[in-house]
Design a protein that fits this description.
The chain is of the alpha+beta class and 350 residues long. The protein folds into two domains: 225 residues, TIM Barrel (Alpha-Beta Barrel); 75 residues, Sandwich (Immunoglobulin-like), CATH 2.60.40. The protein is 27% helix and 29% strand. The protein has eight helices and 19 strands. The strands form three sheets. Strands 1, 2, 3, 4, 5, 6, 9, 10, 11, 12, 15, 16, 18 and 19 form a 14-stranded mixed sheet that branches. A three-stranded antiparallel sheet has the order 13-14-17. Helix 2 packs parallel to helix 3. It is globular.
């Protein structure tokens, strides 16, 4: 009787395992998000612009943090308009989930630019949110005084969705080392807010030139008010340590890459280091050129042979490309360090 029952039990477990496997296959495997280290840096996925019900968002603070974890972010800043009240709950939930949370809020110039303030201390109080005056003596806080107040409390400023164009307020903030970054992509503005259609999507391509000219960190943020889409904008942060201090130091040092619509945008040197870490090249015994992707980024490449060969390298996958060159050069078609400049990488393989 025991053997009979044991056999039925084993059969039952087998059926459950098959169902579980089938269900997992049908729904797709759990998405992976991790990057290998780039030299001494951890590559962290960040979103530094989002809202909750504490301003004009529709998600609670807990829901926003839990959603961020599900989407694979390592670090976030909740930036409600003119208030940092969500930080305490966000930090508590983030600590439970292993998510770094940075204090922040959104503000800006009256009828002008919007700025994201990050990294201020607990004694900081937002002043005249979105009403900073361009001229001293007006009814609201003068923008230079407001920016200095951010710095005095340990913070920095990112220029959000730069729809107003470049003018004296942002230039002054940049010259003072207060404004250190700009959003190239903002998920919420869509095709509005003076975005331009370029490289297959609507964003702020002119901000790339500004970032290069003024030495700004390049970011891509969701600006989420409701739920974020499946593949939201991401800022990759190259941090010396997995901490709030490490993230802020990386942003101040301009070690960021904007990742959106399957494209990577950033400084050439940083992109070169990233691609050297996530793409490895080998040769098969019969001489074929093999590229392996160690990261979560979809990569489109072109081997610079004659004729040139275009290929796709899926996340955590590999591909074989015909190339007899001892040191093949790959032009990465979706990795950009300028509006017309793709990154090229040479691989020496035996």
């Amino acid at each position: 009787m025991f053997i009979q029952k044991h056999g039925i039990f084993t059969w039952f477990l087998a059926i459950i395992a098959i169902i579980a496997t089938t269900t997992s296959f049908a729904s797709g495997q759990t998405q992976r998000f991790e990057f290998p280290k780039v030299g001494d840096y951890f590559v962290l996925r960040g979103d530094f612009h989002m809202h909750t019900i504490n301003s004009d968002g529709s998600l609670t603070t807990r829901d926003r943090v839990e959603e961020s974890k599900e989407l694979g972010y390592d670090v976030i800043a909740i930036t409600d308009h003119g208030r940092t009240r969500a930080y305490r709950v966000a930090k508590y939930v983030g600590d439970q989930l292993g998510l770094i949370v940075i204090r922040g809020h959104e503000t800006g110039i009256k009828n002008g630019e919007h700025y994201v303030v990050l990294g201020v201390d607990s004694a900081y109080t937002p002043i005249d949110s979105h009403k900073w005056a361009k001229n001293r003596g007006e009814d609201t806080a003068f923008y230079q005084d407001a920016m200095k107040d951010v710095v005095n409390h340990g913070g920095l400023i990112i220029w959000a969705h730069p729809h107003t164009g470049l003018n004296e307020c942002t230039i002054w903030g940049s010259e003072q080392g207060i404004i250190v970054g700009v959003e190239l992509k903002n998920d919420v503005v869509g095709e509005g807010w003076n975005t331009e259609k370029s490289h297959g999507t609507s964003w702020y391509p002119f901000a790339v030139d500004w970032a290069l000219k003024y030495n700004w960190a390049m970011l891509a943020c969701s600006d989420a008010h409701g739920k974020r889409k499946k593949n939201p904008a991401v800022t990759l942060v190259f941090a010396k340590e997995r901490s709030e201090e490490g993230v802020l130091e990386a942003i101040r040092s301009r070690r960021t890459v904007a990742w959106f619509e399957d494209m990577l945008w950033g400084p050439k040197e940083l992109l070169s280091e990233l691609m050297s870490s996530i793409v490895k090249a080998t040769r098969t015994p019969d001489g074929k050129f093999v590229l392996k992707n160690l990261g979560p980024v979809d990569l489109d490449g072109e081997v610079q042979t004659n004729p040139k060969k275009v290929f796709y390298l899926k996340p955590y996958g590999e591909t074989v490309v015909e190339s007899a060159d001892k040191a093949p050069t790959v032009r990465w078609l979706n990795v950009w360090y300028g509006l017309k400049e793709n990154l090229r990488t040479s691989y020496t393989v035996q």
